[in-house]
Design brief:
Elements: E1 5-10, E2 13-21, E3 27-29, H1 34-38, E4 58-61, E5 66-69, E6 72-73, H2 74-80, H3 83-92, H4 98-110, H5 118-124, H6 131-145, H7 154-180, H8 194-203, H9 214-227, H10 234-243, H11 249-261, H12 268-281, H13 287-294, H14 315-330, H15 336-350, H16 352-356, H17 364-374, H18 381-402
Helix pairs in contact: 2-9, 3-9, 3-18, 4-7, 6-7, 6-11, 7-8, 7-18, 9-14, 9-17, 9-18, 10-11, 10-18, 11-18, 12-15, 12-17, 14-17
The structure holds acetyl coenzyme *A.
Length: 431
Amino acid sequence: MTQEYAKLIIDGKTYEFPIIVGTEGERAIDISTLRKETGLITFDPGYANTGSCKSSITFMDGEKGILRYRGYPIEQLAEHSTFVETAYLLINGELPTRKQLNRFSVLLNDHSMVHEDMRHFFQSFPRRAHPMGILSSMVNALRAFYPEIPERSEEEEINVTVTRLLSKVRTMAAMSYKISRGHMVVYPRHDLSYAANFLNMMFHSPVRPYVIDDDLVDALNVFWILHADHEQNCSTAAVRLVGSARVNLYAAISAGICALWGPLHGGANQAVIEMLLQIQENGGDVRPFIERAKDKNDPFRLMGFGHRVYKTYDPRAKIMQKICYKVLKKLKRHDPLLDIARKLEEVALKDPYFIDHNLYPNVDFYSGIVLRALGIPLNMFTVMFAIGRLPGWISQWKESMEDPQWKLHRPRQIYIGVGEREYIPIDKREE
Ligand code: ACO
């Protein structure tokens, strides 16, 4: 294929920049030499038009509602895969053979315990501390408890760190929940799968043994698969940016957890339930909330609606909605919040404001109802998202470290402050 170029004319001079094309036909202007050639930089607040890297992990088409991990459609993975297998796929690029999967599961089991001394840290956080704050601190602290071993090769060190993170973050999440309730910590069990182990560590107690239900385990697997990666979203971009300074992987993941905490990102799953509860408390009428979301003088937004990339229905939301019904049916339970959510969606999708702004339900819109049904407390919702997103963060970090075009992330700016001025001694400053 002949190389295409984009022409840029500045002060009458023409510059040419190559157009690069992704495997799915996505086109981008390579402006990596822009400043060197023209002295100019680009201005793109929020990076909505900026490709920060080339990646072969996840493909999404926001107009068509397509999401694929390493080429596999999200719908197929949700139906046939498990979270552990999907994590392997994201991190290693291919689906594992049976032998590879067994080996990976054994490693996850071997690394599932958390250093006993870390328990003191958990116990020192105030009971009301948000679990996302605790998780980001504890993940960063993992480096102190598991320092680098110089005898290990870099590859071995990365592999150990990756399995440790995948396994321990899940244990730590359950541990923080138990400690926050003043309950005895439940240790991981070697005979349980990754997801079953998590539910057991969360809900088992010596006086009320937890009965593992395969359907609920499947639902949790799907929940995590749907969250496993989403290309250059805010938290993944944070992991890549912090990682670009060559910090250790724990620190980079900790930065991702902090970014995910925000209500405009992963924190939306908690915010959706809070919003649905508020609608319920106000009698269940969704219309005043729709009106508030449309009012430019009101900061209220319909949580779980809208997405930077999807301008159509988020494919993950469709699967999550089905899981809601499946789980509630299995538990023979009715959740009035699901009725409110369906009504909200129905009204919003017919409203010209939401149609014109391309605002559709995103992954968070139905995920909270699934988590509620599984018994996960509201303040742990974003932690559940974080466990799911770990393989994505890890694979993106790994890819960035191996990228031949790797560079320290360092955007530029357009300075709009005051020009140079003389320092004024304090006694000469006007009160
Ligand atoms: N409710 C009402 N209006 C909205 C919403 C919403 N949920 N989302 C976007 N809009 C409107 C904005 O007011 C703006 O309107 P205007 O152009 O008339 O001023 C327009 O749509 C574009 O909004 P932006 O904030 O510029 O779009 P952006 O791409 O930055 O926003 C975001 C994406 C942050 C997700 C936004 O849709 C939002 O705040 N949604 C609610 C929070 C949420 O659900 N977040 C989870 C996202 S999925 C995830 O991170 C896992």
